[in-house]
Amino acid sequence: MKSLSELIVRFRWAVILLFFGVTAFFALQIPKLEIDTDIKSHLPKDMPSRLDTDHIDKLFGGTEMLMVLVQTDDVITGETLARVKKLSRKIKRIKGVDKVMSLFDLQSIKSDNGMMVVDPAVKKIPKNDAEREEIRSEITGNDLVYGSVVSRDFSVTAIIAMLKTNTKDEEIVPEFLKVIEEVPGNETVQVGGLPLNRFETGIGIRKDMRLLLPLGILIMLLFLYGCFRRIRGVLMPFIVTVMSIIVSIGIISLIGWKFQMVTVILPIFLIAVANNYGIHMITKYQEDNVPSNNFSKKELAKRMFQSLGKPVLLTGLTTMAGMLCLIGHIMVPAKELGILSAIGILFALLASLFFIPAFMSFLPRSKPVLSQIEENHKKKPVVERLLWLFGEVISRHPKKVLSGLLLFALVSSIGIFRVVVDTNPNSYYPPDHPTVKVNNIIDEHLGGSQNVAIVYEGDIKDPKIMNKIDKTEHALAEMEEIGTTISIARVLRMMSRTLNDLTSSHYDKIPETRDGIAQYFELYAMSGDPDDFNKLVDFPQEHAIVTARINKTSTAVLSGVIPRIKKMVQGDPDVLLVGGFGVVLSDLAEAVVKGQLLSLILAIVICAVLIMLLFRSFNAGIISAIPLLFSIVILFGLMGVFGIELNIVTALLSSIMIGVGIDYTIHFLWRYREERRSRLDAVAAVKKTLATTGRGITFNAFSVMIGFIALFFSAFLPVRFFGFLVVVSIFACLIGALVLVPALVLIWKPRFLEGK
To answer: Could you tell me the fold of the domain covering 380-418+588-756?
Structure first.
């Protein structure tokens, strides 16, 4: 370490220019950054549910939709229906709209002297009460619209626009909003659907990027000045942090990735964590820069590296290891965040070890912040007095302290059993957000906002397959969680009733022969448009789809109903696949749980092994794991107590907590061993370690907690909850390092920490 510190100071200009040059290169990549708001992007491209959903889009020309909801006391009025008709016509003209379904576009199948007649569900605007009631009666008997396009209480009607594939949300959603403004009225009109959710997510991401980064930097600057009370104490960690943020974000576009909602955490994470290594270096500088020492500016710079090179390097490696454990997640953004965070930490680590000493070697000695008065603790700053108090209490009552912490963890663990998983996009926003309100209206009045689709393959005109489709639709409709269903079999049954006897259930069935089914299709084509059913059966009539809408957006409901649906059609050779956005969300929930467990185990094991190697002791890994387990219990216990769900954002927390929180234990153990080797007894070594390195550990932990406070102002609820949980979990890690670990070493007295 000594010879390397000499090289850093000797070639300081080269070191400084190298770091600035690398930063400038990656800064040039940031303008190329793209934003991705598609939830399917959270899953690997080869994941079955994503592949199946994409396959459905190819077969039936795209299944994504935007819904315009018109809400009033009664939609069957001349004024309201006139507005619905105008809206429908304008929406048809929007580029990217493939098909529109509304009361004026969906069909009513009737019989006229034994002939099939196909008319719009609403042919004309009613002029009096009698015409209104006639329309209401016809809609009630129309299975294609009642309960799905118009609510059963006639308070809501929908204009459903099926979108073409590869339609861009940022282009089509504003067009829909513009149409609503162009057709004013007394009704409440809102837009809903997955494209709107993604559009709102994109707005939220851009808002967070504009707000959270400068807010986080401001908070960090104020905190650093409060800690060190010197400009250089602020400037050095700040420069390192900004450079690491630029490098990690620049890499995103350089390697072809995109910025997603989860990526919002990246710059805040680096603001909170990347300055940690610089904080320890500056703390050491101020510890050496006291009136009784006569070190030159170059000697002070060298001593920073010589004293802290190894522990800072190890803490950086353990943080990187914790973040890289996110690769164990199946979620793509989690993997990417783990890699990007690790790269940012690596750059910050190298910059702290090389750039800061090189830069500080140019600066003259600053006015000392600390004195060497150790006798009168009342004259010390608040942090030092508190650390001295910790040392006194722990050294006198280590067993009581340990028992109290373990009891608190045991009580907190009760909340773990109340933790739930939720990947529903509605949970991104507060309950009063327009997107949530629209989805709730769809769930309550129009059958549901999430869908599941079963695709049959074969000769769709074969009565055997058509009856299977019909039976499947009936079985789905009987499930409590299913709001509405639709399939080509339902349309055929409507034709059968119309052409035969409307009052007899004998004709409410699928024709018994293939020719009979083909004849129904031909009769419909003579009066209607064959393309009316291209979202139910493909053109060669080799694939048909049964679509069910789920009337509750809870992930728990999806995770319960999806396996039942799959089991219902399991083993049927005519079923090609089960897909839809509901299946994607269900698989995403499962991925969150599996990824959480895997990354958690990996992070603990890898960090423990690294510490074993550093201290060359198995017991070192055990001691380091105990405060981590303590913090994990507190974290998940509080999640259960406060009702915070495990979702695509909070699932990243444990790896981050372990990667960052382990640093505090490492710094304590390293300094404690040095004090024991300088022949201090165990109690004195604990007190001195808390009084010296404890200061850097405290500043380090609070810099992380305060840095993550910026996330409280995010546009997304999961990100806000994530910020809160980081503060709680890092504080638990801090207590573990400053209270739990000292008590452990006093009771256990592990040999690897004893003096030589």
So the answer is: Multidrug efflux transporter AcrB transmembrane fold (1.20.1640)
Instruction: Identify the architecture of domain 1-32+229-372 in CATH.
Output: Up-down Bundle (1.20)
CB neighbours of residue 254 within 10 Å: 16
Q: How far apart are alpha carbons 289 and 304 in whole angstroms?
A: 11
- For 247, residues 6+ apart whose C-beta sits below 8 A from its C-beta are 22, 23, 26, 343, 344, 347
Q: Alpha-carbon torsion 623, 628, 630, 631, what sign? A: positive
Query: C-alpha 2: how far from its chain's center?
Result: 45
Q: Where are the beta strands (DSSP E) in 527-596?
A: 543-550, 575-579
544-598 tens-digit pLDDT: 999 998 887 777 788 888 899 999 999 999 999 998 888 888 887 777 777 777 8
Domain boundaries defined on the chain? 1-32+229-372, 380-418+588-756
What is the per-residue DSSP string for 368-423?
A: PS-----S-GGGS-HHHHHHHHHHHHHHH-HHHHHHHHHHHHHHHGGGGGG--B--
Per-residue pLDDT tens over the stretch 684-702: 999 989 888 888 788 878 8
Report the greatest alpha carbon distance in the chain.
111
Nearest to 196 by CA among 558, 441, 452: 441
d(CA 556, CA 552): 9
* Measured CA distances, 196 to 169, 181, 445, 449, 548 (Å): 7, 17, 19, 12, 21
Separation CA 163–CA 245 (nearest Å): 38
Can you state the angle between helices 693-708 and 682-691, rounded to 10 degrees? 40
Q: How far apart are CA 656 and CA 603, in angstroms?
A: 9
pTM for the whole thing? 0.75
Taking alpha carbons only, the member of 522, 529, 537, 531 closest to residue 487 is 537
